[in-house]
Design a protein that fits this description.
It is a single chain. The protein has 18 helices and 18 strands. The strands form four sheets. Strands 10-11-9-12-13-14-15 form a seven-stranded mixed beta sheet. The longest helix has 22 residues. Strand 13 and strand 14 form a beta hairpin. It is an alpha/beta fold. Helix content is about 45%, strand content about 25%. Helix 8 crosses helix 9 and helix 17 packs across helix 18. It starts with a strand and ends in a 6-residue tail after the last strand.
Length: about 425
């Protein structure tokens, strides 16, 4: 089956990518051409069916962040690397006969230039380099600022050549008769980008084709159960099997389940049916998916107050509870340091994953036992046991007290002392 790649790029870049497309088997290219990288978001609204979206660089990829996150297909961009920079500098020195200190360069990250020159022991470094990584981080990117950078240096007689990584900037420099050249993306880099696009699309397809098994547990009346089952089965194209008077299993694919979540239509099913517990499991086999579904159902059944759905993936990521939240926690520890923490503190991988997520999501680093109890959705006694286990090993410490009421004991204020950004 051929992989359809949507290319978001300038006309010049698409010509280059077409010239090497024959090196990759079983791909088709669709072009979406911009004159300015800030036009990329509008092009995404014009996408025809495709398997992956390939951006010509970091700028159109960045400007399309909001739109990219809504796409059901994977996206990636051709990153600037040492090969791109070294090829461009070599072309400038050899063909244009200019020295490094008479060149101005714009690129995403200037550290790449330093790495290239350091690797061949060249001490001379271009004086005039501007990167736009920080501009993007601060959300203040301005194309005219990049053009002005090169133009000012040229008018002041400080450079003989401008090298730009932005096609729209190149067009402006040519318009002002400033000697310039585009950053040279080597054929090998473009071929590698196409191959990565194809591989990413194939991986996504294989994931979506995974088996999905679901279990539903409820105390609803039989006619209400039938109504709920039929509604969910229809939207996820599932086959249904009744396993008990109030229990059902569903068989579908991961792609259909994720499509249900992406459409945000899950809430309408739960709103009219209280006290429904659903667990879905993904797996490469029915047996694996079935086992994960039963585990996910147990998590859903723990919440007696409202209907909810949990999903356990084949790599033991627990997602949910939907539709209220879409948190993610890992039920396995693969990082050696986290595994050591779990063993020392005698915590389950699930609880440790929740703690790490708790630390990431909080705006303040400080918290009380009540804050943690609310987040974990467990009793205060259970929370205090977890805190004690962590405190005994030095993974949590008291930094103060909080007196929110005039009577009673003050509450301890804690801070986590473990790595959360793994």
């Amino acid at each position: 089956m051929r992989t359809r790649i949507a290319v978001i790029s300038s006309a010049e870049f698409f010509e280059r990518i077409e010239s090497v497309a024959s090196f990759i088997n079983e791909i088709e290219l669709d072009s979406y051409i911009y004159e300015d990288p800030q036009q990329a978001p509008s092009l995404l609204h014009q996408l025809k069916p495709c398997d992956v979206v390939f951006f010509s660089g970091s700028l159109p990829y960045y400007f399309s962040k909001k739109e990219r996150e809504q796409l059901p297909v994977p996206t990636l961009y051709l990153a600037q690397d040492e090969l791109t920079i070294s090829s461009s500098l070599l072309a400038a020195i050899y063909h244009r006969q200019v020295s490094l200190d008479r060149i101005s360069i714009d690129l995403f990250d200037s550290i790449i230039v330093e790495n290239v020159l350091a690797s061949v022991d060249i001490d001379t470094f271009p004086k005039y380099v501007i990167d736009y990584e920080e501009m993007l981080d601060l959300d203040r990117f301005n194309l005219s600022e990049i053009v002005s950078f090169h133009r000012t240096l040229w008018e002041e007689g400080k450079i003989d050549l401008a090298i730009t990584s932005i096609h729209a900037v190149y067009d402006q420099l040519v318009l002002h008769a400033i000697p310039s050249m585009r950053m040279a993306d080597p054929k090998t880099a473009i071929i590698r980008g196409l191959q990565e696009s194809k591989s990413l699309a194939m991986y996504k397809k294989s994931q979506l084709a995974q088996v999905a098994v679901g279990y539903i547990s409820t105390k609803l009346q039989e006619n209400e159960i039938q109504k709920l089952i039929e509604a969910i089965a229809r939207v996820i194209h599932a086959s249904v099997q009744q396993i008990s008077p109030t229990g059902y299993s569903l068989y579908s694919t991961r792609g259909d389940i994720e499509g249900l979540l992406d459409q945000n239509i899950l809430l309408q099913y739960f709103s009219g049916f209280p006290h429904v517990s659903i667990g879905f499991g993904f797996g490469s086999t029915i047996m694996e998916a079935d086992k994960n579904a039963l585990a996910a159902l147990r998590f859903a059944e723990k919440d007696q107050k409202k209907s909810c759905l949990y999903i356990l993936t084949n790599d033991k990521k627990l997602l949910g509870p939907y539709p209220q939240e879409s948190k993610q926690q890992s039920l396995i520890n693969v990082h050696p340091e986290l595994l050591q923490i779990a063993q020392k503190a005698k915590l389950s991988p699930g609880n440790l994953s929740k703690l790490i997520q708790f630390g990431k999501e909080r705006q303040s680093h400080h918290f009380t036992a009540a804050d943690l109890s609310d987040y974990l959705q467990v009793t205060r006694r259970t929370t205090e046991r977890i805190i004690k286990k962590l405190a005994d090993q030095g993974y949590i410490r008291i930094i103060g007290e909080e007196m929110t009421y005039q009577q009673g004991r003050p509450r301890a204020v804690y801070i986590l002392n473990l790595p959360i950004y793994q």
